[in-house]
Amino acid sequence: MGFVLSRKTMTRVMLLLIVTMTWFVAGDAGGTKPEERLFNIEKLEMFVDKLPHIPTLHGFHIVNGVLKPKSLQIGMFFKKWKFHRDLPATPVFAYGVSKHKATVPGPTIEAVYGVSTYVTWRNHLPSSHILPWDPTISPAIAKRGGIPTVVHLHGGIHEPSSDGNADSWFTAGFKETGTKWTKPTYHYVNKQQPGNMWYHDHAAGLTRVNLLAGLLGAYILRHSSVETPLKLPTGREFDRPLIVFDRSFRKDGSIYMNATGNNPTIHPQWQPEYFGDAIVVNGKAWPRLTVRRRKYRFRIINASNARFFRFFFSNGLHFIVIGSDSAYLAKPVSTKSVLLAPSEIVDVVVDFSKSTSKTAILANNAPYPYPSGDPVTDENSKVLKFIIKHKSETDTSSIPTKLVQYPHADVSKSVRTRYIAMFEYVSSADEPTHLYINGLPYNAPVTETPKMGTSEVWEVINLTEDNHPLHIHLGLFRVLEQTALVETEKFTDCMTEKNDAVKCQISKYARGNKTAVTAHERGWKNVFKMMPGHVTKILVRFSYVHSNESYSFDATQEPGYVYHCHVNIGSRRQYDDETFCDGQVIRFFRKMDGDTYVIDALCEDRKVDEACSLWRKMLKNNNCIPDNALLSTLIHWLCKDGRVTEARKLLDEFEKGSVPSLLTYNTLISGMCEKGELMEAGRLWDDMVERKCKPNAFTYNVLIEGLCKMGNVKEGKEEDGVKIVSMAVKSGKVDRECWELFLRKFAGELDKGEGNDLDSRDLVAHSFIKGWLGFDLLQGPVVTVKVFEDNGLIRQFLEEKRVLVEGANDVQYSEATPWFKLIVNGCIRDVDEINGCDIGVRALASHPIKASKKGLGEQ
């Protein structure tokens, strides 16, 4: 099968593309209002609202004095919420047992060690979102309307089907579900160490907006036999969660989220991070709390999308840190400040009897973005005011010299070392466009396959300019050391080319200054701040850390677990939601026999030939047929070494007894496209389709990139390559980067003379217009104005070139899009070789206008 397209078939494909893009953008109900309608946050008086008590739900029953499992029904509701006394009520999404009782944050779930909690999460959200969302990054999209959601218990150790996988989303009434959704009720076994967790939305491509809308809450796991002897502050008054995040508001009280791209020539909506003007604690902006002169326990959660907080007290009070993330420390640590990344949790005791003042401000001085961004302002430097009563009192609580002792983390018993690299790619306009982990997108084949009950050393290499909080689902880890890279640019160039830390001689570059791990971060964690330009070594444990026992459930089941960066900005691939860096999947081996684990270990040690030899021995054993995940591992390493032909041979051997999975096909197709063997990739595609193996976004993206890079998107030859493009368009699974690459190739590369007259921003826009208009694709059909309105590339090109149009056809005019006056039916003169294109346009407003000879509308 060849991958070349004729003008006729390309026309058909492009019309499909237009229809698809129109549908996606029309689904965006958020819209963006001008910035002048923002609420002036300086007009809000601080500390006028009391710190709210978050309602509590118990995840257990007490029957005749015995603790029993309990089932909870928690819904997601649309309602209005007062964030401040003087701010109009804000539309939010909130968790609760009913709409009336729903709160922001949601109710705190309290569970007990060893007693299961069952939660049925129910979606009662409306058909459209209250915030603008980006339809170009392949988010979870419900074809029949509705807002996809799924809940992840951050820090929880539980079965894969209850982990809240990003593709396990569901809409209201479970009318539609994601590809990995399995059940409505989640089972939290509660057999891990006692500590703090939080639950939040985790839907693909929508996590950012769903969290901003209010879908988050705290989860506390208690263990009386462990905690009672510690005599820490207890009770509703003296033991309180503090859930902190930032928000900006419009004058009408609604949450403001800028949906205009930081650089529209790159993307019309992408913004690096979200930073709000107001600091919210437990649902109130800058609240106050009256406290007694005694010890209080605060479980502080940073629930911001991107903001780091470095907390300190204005009067010099200390934090006594007793826990980090979801585990206790071995002993308390006293510190004047605590740095928290998004999603991190710190468990502290504050002794107000030691205060020399009547008030204390919980303050923040972390730059944003951290660590080299803007300094804090007066508004975002203040968090919470404590009013300290004058009268002293007896305090029966204490701070023990020792807390909870867990089994020693023995690095010598780790079974292997993995290198995890954080990449950042920037455009010619110096704008980040891709942030990957190990150079792979989220939907790439799995590369991390640890064995349950083992420990591994992960060396996390941050090649970006920002500090990234890395979060690992299921596994906990200890931070061992942080080492600065030397000759970073040279090492980054090698990693970009080879994507292999060993081949790039990581030891040669990881020899800079070492940064000591902060004392209160030396316990077991599930999130840690990966410093830019550093290698951070961590010991990851895949068992219960308090007992070293294996999990009480089967962690090898689908859909597996993920690890990712927890800055919620743009996406998994390019720039949207759940993860700034592209999340990666952890898949555990099934317990077949010891050979499966040996094969993976051999591959990690670059002994691929030995691994293949063992594989073939397993194939000869009729009682032990290796699975697709193991085959994919072998194929991945063969392709990585450029041995694509051998990888295909391995697949052929496997096919004699089993049917390859999508994972296996994707791994090999990716390797073939990377090496330029597009014809072979096409044959494998045919085999895949014939076997009714349904491709996913990764399959389409790899093939389309292969089409473009090999120069096979030209007119004049028609072959079956058009099938891939057509199917991709219909599926709606292709990311924006691939479409831009595809359209550039389709339009034809600009010659040198033409290119010299265009800057880097014009180049892509010019190619887009040539691709859309150069083949008369838009003669006749009416195209929704939103296709143009939301495409910053085309809009920027038309605005800057002041494209003149002529003609006198009736069109409709939208006040929300004044730039649209520049476009009416007629001829676009400023674009070479596109004269005579008849563009039918339908705007959004109801009143028609006439176009003048100069192309400007007259009402």
UniProtKB/TrEMBL annotation:
PPR repeat start and end residues: 661-695
BP-aspect Gene Ontology terms: cellular response to phosphate starvation; meristem maintenance
Binding annotation for Mg(2+): 830
Cofactors demanded by this protein: Cu cation; Mg(2+)
Keywords: Copper, Endoplasmic reticulum, Glycoprotein, Magnesium, Membrane, Metal-binding, Oxidoreductase, Repeat, Signal
PROSITE patterns: PPR
Subcellular locations according to the entry: Endoplasmic reticulum membrane
Mitochondrion keyword on record: no
Superkingdom classification of source: Eukaryota
InterPro entries (UniProt xref): Cu-oxidase-like_N, Cu-oxidase_2nd, Cu-oxidase_C, Cupredoxin, LPR1/LPR2, PPR_rpt, RraA/RraA-like, RraA/RraA-like_sf
Plastocyanin-like domain span: 148-223, 276-364, 426-568
UniProt similarity note: Belongs to the multicopper oxidase family.
Name of the protein in question: Plastocyanin-like domain-containing protein
Organism: Brassica oleracea var. oleracea
Lineage start: Eukaryota, Viridiplantae, Streptophyta, Embryophyta, Tracheophyta
